[in-house]
Automatic annotation (TrEMBL):
Protein name: Glutamine--tRNA ligase
Keyword terms, alphabetized: Aminoacyl-tRNA synthetase, ATP-binding, Cytoplasm, Ligase, Nucleotide-binding, Protein biosynthesis
Recorded catalytic activity of this chain's protein: tRNA(Gln) + L-glutamine + ATP = L-glutaminyl-tRNA(Gln) + AMP + diphosphate
Residue span, Glutamyl/glutaminyl-tRNA synthetase class Ib catalytic domain: 26-335
EC number: 6.1.1.18
Residues reported in the UniProt entry to bind ATP: 34-36, 40-46, 229, 259-260, 267-269
Residue numbers covered by motif 'HIGH' region: 33-43
Length: 552
């Protein structure tokens, strides 16, 4: 992609050196999601890094489903991941499923057994944990560690043939129970799971563990640079051990970078799934979710997400990024793309008493001041309009420049109006404002006679339609206080994360398509909700407000 990261990072430096030294003629990277949930913005960082470096250095990237756990995986997730990667703007060179390599992995396990480097262990999961030792104490060897190669081959075959129950036996690599690296203390490489796999069905009842499967998947595909997040750094010696002892043709190398964390956001499929399962959100694509599907439905653009990821860069030290920074890039992008229009979230009727009854006119208002090619749009104006309730005050404080009795303001793109009368109901609530307008003051007419300090937006009563507006706040409330910090994330849900308002739009917006984004004067950027909106009852999501608390 042309706009891709030109700025450098340590991964690019490694790749560039490997190409220059002739170590590789072409690099191959992969994005390896486990299809056990929808992708989130953290995955976007990994996608953009993996596809980005391959694009920049003329290499290839595989999309590989790391589907070695039959219990949690699902084809719904497979499909959503493909859609999300494409939407972000990337196309894979190959689409692979790790489960297609189960035969290859099984052969490699046999090879390890034959080399005396793997054994079937009958310890219970608890015993295995106890025997493993701690960071300060070495582990203890399993009593099954010295089974003969023949016995191991037979038992492993029986495991494969379904003779044993889940958890009854495992296959372990025979490495070093005294290693200072706990990952090297005879890790489990195969377990028994009598479960139907989304891809291989009931063909297998033994499944490879991540630490064994992942390096073999990389080797099988000829991956050169296997990029993953920091928590796998301690697993790298095991990765290298598997590659070496399995005698693979290709020798991939693992490199680790810091995962993306964002304030006010949970970033783990396990937690996001809980939000969905508990009904706290309306599915994986709820506009409050940090999933790619949620961000897309909310109206965040792929461009903004790419620019955000480019800006945060790729580092080796973990850090947390302010969520306002992502919003900043969304605003930057929509500022150029989104047509301007007017919507009233909390309507108050305004009657222009000296405007001829029954008459109307078409005003021309700029569509997008940041887009030279943008046309003016035609906006009907008439005697009765609606304004925002908060744009009128009967007893205003000092420096209130909007409408109040006796004051004159500009109606955006139209005329000056002056408030003469306030109509109230029996309870004293303001129900209508009566104004007079000055025909001389039409917008664009060059009128210089006098100035007003406030401009307010409006919609014509005869030319508007009802709409629902959904206003969002962060789903999770972060806190600096320790007691708060230690709370379970479900206790930190923001009760105001979604506020719905019934208001009015210019009726021309009824023809907007799902997903279309607009800037509503003063309220921010909104898009037409792809799930809930109908022609009869449009629903708009606020993508971001106009105010930014973040500067680059
Ligand atoms: P989660 O904890 O959210 O389930 P995961 O790491 O288990 O994430 P995978 O499907 O295994 O999810 O991830 C696919 C790739 O995305 C991996 O290479 C992983 O390192 C990367 N990744 C996941 N989360 C992040 C993140 N927050 N920032 C950057 N990369 C990430
Ligand atoms: Mg995972």
């Amino acid at each position: 992609m042309a706009e891709e990261n030109k700025s450098s990072n340590f991964i690019k430096t490694i790749i560039s050196n490997d190409l220059e030294s002739g170590k590789y003629k072409e690099i191959v990277t992969r994005f390896p999601p486990e299809p056990n949930g929808y992708l989130h913005i953290g995955h976007a960082k990994s996608i953009i890094l993996n596809f980005g470096v391959a694009d920049e250095f003329g290499g290839k990237t595989n999309l590989r489903f790391d589907d070695t756990n039959p219990v949690k995986e699902d084809t719904e997730y497979v499909e959503s991941i493909k859609e999300d990667v494409k939407w972000l703007g990337y196309d894979w060179d190959n689409l692979f499923f790790a489960s297609d390599y189960f035969d290859y992995m099984y052969e490699k396990a046999i090879l390890l057994i034959k080399k005396g480097l793997a054994y079937v262990c009958d310890l219970t999961p608890e015993e295995i944990r106890d025997y493993r030792g701690t960071l300060t104490e070495p582990g203890k060897e399993s009593p099954y560690r010295n089974r003969t190669i023949e016995e191991n081959l037979q038992l492993f075959e029986e495991m494969k043939n379904g003779k044993y129950k889940d958890g009854e036996k495992v296959l372990r690599a025979k490495i070093d129970m005294a290693s200072p690296n706990i990952n090297m203390r005879d890790p489990i490489i195969y377990r028994i799971a009598h479960a139907t796999h989304h891809n291989t069905g009931d063909k297998w009842c033994i499944y490879p563990m991540y630490d064994f499967a992942h390096p073999l998947e990389d080797a099988h595909e000829g991956i050169t640079h296997s990029i993953c997040t920091l928590e796998f750094a301690d697993h790298r010696p095991l990765y290298d051990w598997i590659i070496k002892e399995c005698e693979t043709e290709y020798v991939p190398k693992q490199y680790e970078f810091a995962r993306l964390n964002i304030t006010n956001t949970v970033m783990s499929k396990r937690k996001l799934k809980l939000l969905v399962d508990e009904g706290i959100v309306d599915g994986w694509d709820d506009p409050r979710m940090p999933t790619i599907a949620g961000l897309r439905r909310r109206g965040y653009t792929a461009e903004a997400i790419r620019n955000f990821c480019k800006e945060i860069g790729v580092a080796k030290a973990a850090s947390t990024v302010d969520s306002a920074m992502l919003d900043y890039f969304v605003r930057e992008d929509l500022n150029i793309k989104a047509p301007r229009t007017m919507a009233i979230l909390d309507p108050l009727k305004l009657v222009i008493t000296n405007y001829p009854e029954g008459e109307e006119e078409i005003l021309e208002i700029e569509n997008n001041p940041h887009d030279e090619n943008s046309d003016k749009r035609k906006v009907p104006f008439s005697r009765e309009i609606y304004i925002e309730r908060e744009d009128f005050m009967e007893n205003p404080p000092k420096k209130y420049f909007r409408l109040f009795p006796g004051n004159e303001v500009r109606l955006k793109g139209a005329y000056f109006v002056k408030c003469n009368e306030v109509i109230k109901d029996e309870d004293g609530n303001v129900t209508e404002i009566h104004c007079t307008y000055d025909p001389e003051t039409k917008s664009g007419s060059g009128f210089t006679g006098r100035k007003v300090k406030g401009t307010i937006h409006w919609v014509s009563a005869k030319h508007c339609a009802k709409a629902e507006f959904r206003l969002y706040e962060p789903l999770i409330l972060d806190s600096e206080e320790e007691e708060e910090e230690n709370k379970h994330f479900l206790e930190k849900i923001n009760p105001n994360s979604l506020v719905s308002k019934e208001g009015l739009i210019e009726d021309s917006l009824l023809s907007a398509e799902k997903g279309d984004a607009f800037q509503f004067f003063r309220h921010g950027y909104f898009n037409v909700d792809s799930k809930l909106s109908t022609k009869e009852k449009p629903v708009f999501n606020r993508i971001v407000s106009l105010k930014s608390s973040f500067k680059l």
